[in-house]
């Protein structure tokens, strides 16, 4: 029997997801507790305490001076050595074919944030403030901004089940392929990238 190559290897759950996204996190902001990571999906994704802390601090927009509604932005953090090896990202062939501007940067994660702030007099702070953060090895700002425009409002409206559904859709995406046009289904929409 001839040895099989990587193309014949079975695709395991979350393999395709991991080529695009490391995790989706929800960060909540409380007057007494400060920033706290409320959830990481999928639940098996590991982040060091330092990475969690950095994500929580960076998930709140610095320039938020009374701005109401939704704000999107992105950041980049250095991964801790102990989690770097457990965050595979896209296949190595991705960087060979990708233009320099969208190549991965070993040792870093990009965070794409959808922050929501609305008045809520029932809360001590007077505002509901929460961020949905998508973490990826890929610096694809336009794509992940669009992804969060679909995923975050759905999460705020319907809760955790919508994040689970979105992650399962992301797991159905083909691997990222620079130079090719891909149709990527997500929550009833097809993104062309």
Explain what this protein looks like in three dimensions:
The chain is α+β, with helices and mostly antiparallel strands and 193 residues long. Helices cover 28% and strands 29% of the residues. It has helices at residues 15-20, 49-58, 81-84, 93-97, 141-158, 160-170, and strands at residues 23-30, 34-41, 69-78, 108-119, 127-136, 183-186, 189-192. The strands form two sheets. A five-stranded antiparallel sheet has the order 2-1-5-4-3, sandwiched between helices. Strand 6 and strand 7 form a beta hairpin. Helix 5 packs antiparallel against helix 6 (160-170). It is globular, with a radius of gyration of 17 Å. The termini are far apart. The model is unreliable at 1-6 (pLDDT under 50). This is UDENN domain-containing protein. Belongs to the DENND6 family. InterPro entries: ABL9/DENND6_dom (IPR018307), DENND6 (IPR024224), Tripartite_DENN (IPR037516).
């Amino acid at each position: 029997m001839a040895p099989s190559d990587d193309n014949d290897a079975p695709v395991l759950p979350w393999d395709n997801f991991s080529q695009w996204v490391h995790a989706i996190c929800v960060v909540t902001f409380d007057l007494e507790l400060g920033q706290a990571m409320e959830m990481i999906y999928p639940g098996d994704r590991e982040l060091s305490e330092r990475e969690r802390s950095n994500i929580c601090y960076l998930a709140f927009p610095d320039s938020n001076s009374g701005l109401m509604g939704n704000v999107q932005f992105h950041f980049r953090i250095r991964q801790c050595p102990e989690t770097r090896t457990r965050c595979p990202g896209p296949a190595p062939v991705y960087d060979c074919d990708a233009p320099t501007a969208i190549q991965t940067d070993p040792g870093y994660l990009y965070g794409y944030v959808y922050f929501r702030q609305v008045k809520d007099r029932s809360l001590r702070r007077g505002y509901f403030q929460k961020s949905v953060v998508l973490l990826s090895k890929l610096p694809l700002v336009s794509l992940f901004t669009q992804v969060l425009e679909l995923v975050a409002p759905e999460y705020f409206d319907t809760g955790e089940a919508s994040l689970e559904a979105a992650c399962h859709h992301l797991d159905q995406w083909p691997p990222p392929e620079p130079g090719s046009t891909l149709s990527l289904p997500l929550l009833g929409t097809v993104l062309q990238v």
